[in-house]
Predict the 3D structure of the following.
Amino acid sequence: MHELSIAMSIVEIAEENARKESASVVTEIELEVGTLSGVVMEALETAMDSAIKGTMMENAVIKYKMIAGKAQCAECGTVFDTDTAFDPCPECGSPFSDIVQGKELTVKKLIVE
Ligand SMILES: [Zn+2]
């Protein structure tokens, strides 16, 4: 399961950082998830719940911040919102664009004790 391996690596990153600060408990973590990251939100939440069991993150508050998808037209440079990465440019109709935002899947904030 894709989301479970993502969740486990998030826990790994969190624990690594907590250890670096000589902390023993992760109290809060904030994740940024882009709508174009390919992650199914519900699946990630479920995966996180099971991945944190028995770890330093077991009782941590997990916050999810969604990052909207944005693309830039390769023809005219217009930046527009997209949830699929395959939308044509709303200005010139060009099907060619680059994703400039929305692929994020990062640990934004980590509070340890
Ligand atoms: Zn365009």
